[in-house]
Structure formats: structure tokens, C-alpha cells
Amino acid sequence: MRFFLVLLLFLSYSIAFSQSKEIKINWDGNRVFSTSSSEFEIPFFDNYNYNFTPSNGISLVAQWTDNSGIDYNSIVIEKLELIDISEDQLMDLDRKTIPDELNYNIKTSIAREKTYLFLELNPIINQNGSFKKINSFRFSYKNAPVKKSKINRNQSSVLSSGDWYKFYVDKTGIFRIDRSFLSQLGISVNDINPRNIKIFGNGGNMLPLSNSIEYPIDPIENAIKVYGEDDGVFNNNDYILFYAEGPNGYNSESNTNLNLYSDKTAYYINIGSSPGKRILENIQPDNPSNTVINTYTSYKYHEIDEYNIAKIGRRWFGNRFDFNSSQTFEFNFPNLITEEPINIKIYTAAVSEISTSMSISVNNQEISNLNYSPIGDPVLVSGDFYSDNIMVSNSNISVNLNYNNNGNPSSVAYLDYISIEGTSDLIFNNDQLIFYNKDLVDLNGVGEYNISNANLISNIWEITDLNNVSEIIIEDIENVAVFKSILGEEKRFIAFNQDSYFEPIIEGETTIENQDLKSQIFLDEQNQFQDIDYLIICRSDMLYEAERLAQINRDNNNLNVKVVTLEKIYNEFSSGNQDIAAIRNFVKYTYNNSNDPNNRLKYLCLFGDASYDYKDRISQNTNVVPSWHSINSYSLSSAYVSDDFFGMMDYEEGMMDNSDKLDIAVGRILADTPQRATDLVDKIESYYNSNSYGDWRNKLIVISDDVDEPWESIIQGTSNSLADLITDNKPFFNVKKILSDAYVQESSAGGERYPEVNNAIIDGIELGALVVNYFGHGGEDGIARERIFDKIDATELSNENRLNCFVSVTCEFTKFDNPGRNTAGEFLYWNKNGGAIALITTTRQIFVSVGVNFNLTLEDYLFSLNSDTYHTMAEALRLTKNDPSISGTDQRRLVFFIGDPAMKLAIPKPNIQITEINDIPINEFSDALQGLSSVKIEGQIEDEFGNKIDEYSGELVTTVFDKNIERSTLGNDGTSQNDSPIILDFTTLGEVLFRGKSSIENGDFTVNFIVPRDVVMDVDYGKISFYSKSTSSLMDQNGYNLDVLIGGINENAAEDNIGPEIELFMNDEAFISGGITNENPNLLVKLFDQNGINTSSGIGHDIVAVLDGDVANSFRLNDYYQANIDDYQNGTITYPLRDISPGLHTLSLKAWDVYNNSSISEIQFVVHDQDQELVISNVLNYPNPFVNYTEFWFNHNSSYDLNVSIQIFTISGKLVKTINGYINTSSSSSLSRDLSWDGRDDFGDKVAKGVYMYRLTVRSDQIDKQVSKIEKLVIL
Q1: Distance between CA atoms of 815 and 824, rounded to whole angstroms?
Q2: Are 1276 and 1250 in contact, with CB atoms under 8 Å apart?
Q3: What's the pTM?
């Protein structure tokens, strides 16, 4: 509820109020609010929640918990103290956003039974041209019961039984249905009793967005008139008349005359066994009339929805003013009373880099000018409107709009709509005349309606109640029809004749299957009531995959999950019409009707992509499961898409006010096609599979942008603080900091770049991390101005079974609602070979200051910093948005959860403990782990109570880190503050001294390794990190130790002067140097050294691979090395090479052992060109000669599956054997050894000893290419 109070009315009252709040604002100069592409310097205060958007200006938010609601009539604001603020001090604050009087909003705000009172006000006002800022005031109120939504418990749907048929109307008025139309619907007309025909529908108006407005949640039967029904047979001349409401009509919530979701309205016909509702006679009052009504309110509009100018928001525009800068729109109002003013509204917008304007003329008289400001970033469109009463001299009204582009030919203006409302004489027009009179609402008594020219009227119906139309019976209608009605409300009527009926429309499938969501949604398999944990809503063509997702959550999370299709929701909750409020109303029904308030619906998944276009006007549209879009459609920071709308269940919510709080954790699966749905559910399923268990679950990555401007130091500072908070509160995590400014910046033709940062991000993600958090500037194509990670990187990632939650509170990273431009976030989520399992991400531009608070608050809930009980990722986001530190800003709506809302991070359970080191109990061990010393670590797997799990068997990964490293950023851009360069000192994890696997038996494990010589000499505490997974069940644990000293050198170590042994392969160990690979092969390295391999990154002692001698772009492979299980001497590296050009390549690799002895090995490989011919090489059979078994080997250059045929001939050319096979190339190996021969012919007989020839033929059907080679073999 919003109040506007003139300042002169702010008086002190002596009334005693039960509650009061003192508000004193601590003004603190100006602050800069920045996005990736814009800055605003505006007045600031720091002691209440501060909310700013360019479109709405500044607001103050104060909220406090209160178990009661508020009596809005009891509110008093007193002791208001104002202080002057000069216009110069307003800086970049748009003066249009400053109200002329105190403007505040007070509401009761509820989140899952927790009640708040929420006060929001504009702290700066324009008092008669003088700007004032509020210094303090007192706010007093009385409590009142909290209003709650009506609960419709155990209500069955009318669709649950009978035969149902759907049809449409495209306008409002009287429609006629005849026998032919019923037959076309599929109704067997000969078998029906017309008295049992029923029509259901709730009209074509959009459903209310506000939860406080009651609206039917089931199709309502409409009163109809069936001519000829009395004989019980629907004859050829029989027909049905009914009043239907089409899709159009003014909607104040969206300021439009056109239905946002559809151009037609659905209705149902039901043929039942009982009589249908019929139009009854309207009972006119007996009392004499005190008012004669011979006029009505006449309303006409021009509106076309063709352009969404900025491709954001829910406002669409029609006529375009570019070359055709002057356009005229004609309106005819029959019998307009020109002595009364008309009300005219004109809503327009323009896109121009300079100021432009538009003149408005009515009947050749200029009445006003509209003015448009230059656009910029984030405001992409400038809007202006005219609304006023004017006089006209005749009933033909001509509206001319003339756009002045001020000489800029690229400037374009658009018309949203023109509406005109006037008063006309009540004269029948020989058509369908809908009439009402707004002036009667405030009158009492009885009114007498006089309709002139009435001799052609056949019927007059009252249509005030859409579902209960009644007929006004007037005897002997002549020129004037007279009837009476009670005054005091806006009643609507329609007069028509027999030649003016409309015809309904048949489209698509006409029959509707029986359904009853409201009764069945809570029933389990035994038809017993069971509260629902999780609701999935999908389009019918994705139902199978949605059910798969439901079963995954039943099996893994023990949730009661129900899947419902959009079609069924629309059928039942919006009588067959697309409407986002129908989805919300169904969710609200499910939430409110829980048996136990503590077991109410927790999770909602919107299973499908969304678009700013509800009506499929654009090509390749992705409006699978629609979302809510703001009415603001101009600004990238204020116009947004949000699924929060579907999670707000309380009485005063639904309008997406700042006070509305989330009750349900909402997530969205961005599936635009059924195949994409399959791919995404496959990824979700893989997250729970045994192959996804690994020590990557102990890893986190925090990435920050660099510092281009002084105020941006807060970006890297926030990222560093995030990492440190997690490290301090959850030390079992190993946090990798990638602070861009700590790496060397390089110049390129495309601008400044950080190639090492790009490599570090890609390597970190592909090695695996539970969460990746980026904070800084970003956009649809990637993150940071230096492009440290872009949509190409997102597409090419290969981290299957190591999927992260990618957190990116940055601008537009996942602006998924524009089907015409896919974003980096979408590619990251869609990546079938890896990428992210979920995104906590933004869809619009967000201010950095908001991002700072959001990130810090989100971290607390996502990682449960003060608890060992973890929320799902979407629930963590819900709690963040409801948190008092965040819920005051409407930019929180810009942050989405993309993924399964019931999924938790795969955080292993505690605990893994060290019991002994070098046979000394851990609590007695005080020696330092010295370089070149042998280390034996023994330990056990424990439960949450510290008891050893004796039956635990599995595999342990141990990572030993050297001491933390103190680092500093480099100040690459030379940015300074107070004449000092901006440098951040920070701490990172030490280098990895050892990483290897060990067996766990009966809960015990032993780890052996030798500490590298390159250990930092200073003695201090390092870190030992553990991860284990059970081999008998899907169970994993983690642990850590921070109490072991590391440093120094073992002077008595044995001598070692021999470097490690190195074997190199491509894709698999069967690869032969010089063989063929694809463009993205995996480098496989096998390493052995008597004392182990060095991964500690001593100077010049990294494991480094060099491709084609390009030392400057070598690959550092330390992080990819892992010792074999129970064997620290042997280990492997698997490293994905990316985008290698076709042709011959040479790769050399240098590795060091822990004694710093090195070795080098080299391999050659040929990358095939996918545009070249199909090639096979290295054709042979092994063994050769052979007795009764040989395999056929060959290399190929195909990335497509292959059909292989081997024909074996005698020397004379006789065919003795044909072998056919199929090769699946998904393994990425270019070597085939899948076909074999036992030395028998096609009849099963053993062939004679001797020399034979064979022809190997390989064919790819996908590229329609074939190649053959001939070789010899010998049978002994």
C-alpha cells in the first residue's frame, strides 16, 4: 500500500500508538555506482539499506521482524526534519525520480511464516522547486492481524470427468455455435442432449499478478442460451448464443490494451449428464428510478505489439517513426458528446543519441510535445507519454504524431498505444453495443437506462459478471428501450441483433483429457495425502526428461517430487490460456494446501528455457516455460526477467515490490529443445554417479577482475575476502585464488589480455572445482574487459564428471531471455562435455556495490560458514535474497539460479584424521617434514562423532601443500589512489609437494612419499588435505591437517643423479609416435622415478610440455600429475590439448624428480584435417605370423563412427574370409584394434598355413567417404 502525504499534513498527534520507530539518516557524501559500462555518482547514506536504480532513483529501506501485521490506517509520520541539498549535490541523480512530496511504502513482508515490517521511502524530495533530504522522522503504527491468502483445500476440477472440447475466440462479444461447429470439434451431435451442453471459461483478461486479488482457480461455467433445446435434440437450425471475453482490454498492471500472452481466448464445451447453466432473466428493481442514463463511456485504442525495442521487459511497441516521421491515426466515436471532454493517453519511446521530440496534434490542433533524452548505457530507450482531458468538436478524432529527430537520421521513435475515452449518447448502432458508464459508480438508488434506435435490438444482456450473464426482458421495444438497474457499481451491458453474431475459432487439438491437479497433486501411489517437497513444471514434449529429473531427486535426495505440464496448469488454472499468473497460482495452491506448514513446498523447477517474447513473434523463439518480465523495458539495470515471481506465496505479494520475499527456492533448467533437456538431465544424473566422486570436490576457485579505475579495488578485495572467509571457516576446502592483477598483462591487437589467467581458469575448471566464483565486470560474451574467459572457452571445456557451480554476480553473463543471442553463461551450462552443473548468475547489469554485498551474503548461506548443515544451492540463493542486508535492493531480482533447485553442492562429509606420522602418534609428532625426507602418514576414516568406520574400504587422495605463499598484485594498469599505486597483498596456498592415491582397508590408510628438494626452507605449518571415496557405496569424506611443520632439508638423504623415466602417448597407450589424432587430443604421460616426481614448482623445475618448439607458450602440467595408488614412484598426467592445427606436430616434455634431476621425452603426431579425405595409416595385424588369433590394427583420422570390412584372400586371389565391424570413435583414440580373426574361413574351417593378402576397407557414412589398404599376413 502506497501513501502520498503532503508535508503540511505532517503534524504531531497525541494518540498513543503501540509501536514506533525512530529513523535518522546518516548522510555520507556521494558514492559512485558502477556497472561494466556506466557510472553514477549520487548522494549516499550508510546506516540503512540503500537502493538505487537509474530509473527509480534513491530509496531507503528499513525492515524489522514483527509477528503481527500492520494497521495501515493507523500510520503516522511525525517529527520530520528536512535539510537542504543543492541541485549540484544531486550529481547524476535523475531529477525526474525525485517526488514532490514524501513518498513511502509500508507493507507486511512474510517468508515461510517469518514476518517482517518493511518500510521504503524516497529520502530526497522536491519541495516547491527546492530540494530537501530527510534527516530524521518518527514512524508510528498499530499492529493488526496478518492477512493471508485464501486456502482452497481439496477442491476438485470440473475437468476431472466428462467429455471436454476446446475452442477459441479472438474478440469480445456475442458468439454463435451451430451444429456444424460442434461436429468440427469432434462432438457426435446426434447423440447429445442440448440441454446438457455447458460452456466453461474465465475470459481473456490476463490474470491478476497480485496475490491479494481473488481469481478462479478452475474453469467456471458460463450462462448460455441454447435455441431449440427443449425437444432434447440438437437439430440443424438449433444454435447456442453466449457472451465471451476476448484477449484484449486495458490492463493497468501492465499498462497495455493487448493480452501479453495470447491473441486468442480459450473456452471449453462440456457435454454432461446434467442440465447446463442457462441465461436467466435479469430481475429489475421495483423501486422508481432517480437517475436517467442515456449516455455511456466509450473507449477506443490503437495498439500494435511488433517491437520490443531493447529486447527486455514486457512492453512492446508498434508504429515506427523513422523515414515516416509523421503518422496520423483516425478514431470514430459514434454519437460522441462533444460538450464533454475526452481523455487521451499516448505512450511512446525513442532511441537516439541526441535529444529528440514528438509533437501531438488532435484534429489539426497541437496539444503537446513529448521529449526524449539521449540514450546511453544502461538506459537503451527513452520514453515519454501524454495523458490529459481535452475538448473536441466532432466525433471523428484525428491524432497526428510528428517525430523530430533533430537532424539525426538514425533516431527512431515508436508508438506504444493511443487510447481515447469519451462519453457518447446511448444509441444502438445496429451491431453489438457494449455499454457502461463510469459516472454511476458513486451514485446511489435506481437508474433508468434509455437506449435510442432500439427497434433493431433483439437482446440486451447484463454482462457485469462474466459467468452469470442475465437477459433483460423488455416488452414491445420500439425506438427507445428502457430498463432499470441498481446504481453504485460499474455495470456492463451488451445490446445486439440477430445479424451481428461472431464466429468462434477452432485450432489444434480440440479434445481435452480429464485431469484434476488440485485433488491429485497431493496423492501418493496409495492415494494417500502426502505433502510435496518439490514441484517440476514442464512443457509436454519434455515430460519424459522432467520425470527423469524427478526420479533422480526421489532416489538421491529422498524428496516427494511431482511433475506437472504447463498445458494442464493452463487448462485448470487459466481456462486454457497461457498466463504466468496461472503457473504462480498453481504453485501457491500447492504451497498453501500443505497439511503441515513446516512441510510446505520447498523447491520449484521451471523445466525449460524462456524468452522476452511470449507470443512467438521472433524467429527461433525459446518461450518454453515463460518467466516474469518487468514493465520497465528500457534499462539494463532496472528492466529484468525474474523467476522470483513464482516463489512469492503471501497475500500482499505478487507485484514484485521490493518488500516481496521468496518462500520457495526456484531454479530453471535452460532446455530449449527436448534433446537439450536430455543432455542437461544427463549432466544432473552424472553429478550423483560414482564417476563424479573425486578430490575436485575439495577445491574452490575464486576469480577477480583487475583494477582499471581506483574504485575497482573493491572487486579484487572482495574476491580475496571471499576466499579467506571460506578458508578460515571451512579449512577442508582448498581455495585457488586467480586474482587477474596478480598475473602479467599483455597487449594484443584486440586490447589488453591476461593469457595466463585464461589458462589458469580453464585448467582449474577442467581439473575440477566444486564452486567457481567470479566477481568483476562481465557481459554476454564473457567475463572482464580483458576477456579472461569467454563463450568459446565455455563451449570447449572438458570437465566431464567434475562439474562446478559457477557463481557470477556480474553483468548479463547469462541473459538467457534473448533467443537471438546466446550468452557465455548459457554455453557454460549447455556444455555436454563439462562446464557447469548450475549457475548462480545475472541476467542484467548489476552495480558493483550490490555485487559486493550479494557475494558476501551468498557465501555465508552457500557454504554454511557457521554451520555443518548445508542448504541446496537454490535455497542458499533464496535465503540470500531474503536477508535484510540484500532484500532492500530490487537488483537482487537480477540474480538467477540455473539448474536443479533441489541439488546440494557435493561437499564430502567429515572426517579423515591422521593418527601417526613416521610411526609417531600425531599428537606427539613435532618434527618438520624436510626436503628429501621419507614420509609415512597413517590415518583413519571417522564418522561425525569421531569414531573409526571399521567397514570402510576405498581410495584416498592425499595432497600435501607447502607453506602458504605471500603474494601481491602487480598494478598492471598503473591505477593509483591518493597518489599510491593500488596493490593488494594476499595469501595463497603453498605449492603441492605431493599428490597421490592410497588404499583404504577397514577404515585405515597409509601414505608414503619423499618430500621434494624444492620445499621452501623456512619451517612453518603447511597443509595436508585428504579426500576419500568408498568402493562399496556412494560415500565420500574429507579431512585436513594444519598442524604439521614443513621445511628444511634432509642432509642425510641418499644420493640420486638419475632423472625420471617418461613415456608419452596421445589419447591412449596404444598410440604410436607419428600416428593420427583429432584436433583436441589428450596428452597421456607415464612417469617413474625411484624417489618420486617433483610438482613443487621450484624455479625452473616444473613439468613442462612444449609444442613445436614454442617455449613461450609452453604448458605447465604440475597440477595434472597424480601418483598411482599406493605407489609414489609412478604417476600419470592426462592433459587436454585444444584446437591443434592440422598437420605434423612435435611435443616434448621435461619432468624433474624430487632430487631435481630432469629428463626429456618427445612424441610426434599428425592432426587430421576434418575437411580432408578419410585417411588410415599404420595398418597391420598383430601377432603376425600367428596360429589361431590375430588383431587388425590401424590409425584413422575420423571423428565419426566407422564401418570396417576386412577381406582375406589367398595369393591366387580367392576370397576365404570376410570380417565386418563397427568402430565407435567417441573414445577420441585414433587407433583401432577392435577386429580380430581366428584363422578360420567363412564356413568355420581352419585355413591352410601360408601367406595371405587382406584388404582393409574403412567407410564413414556421415561424410560419405571410404578408403582401403592391402597388407600381408602369415598363418603358422
Answers
A1: 9
A2: no
A3: 0.90
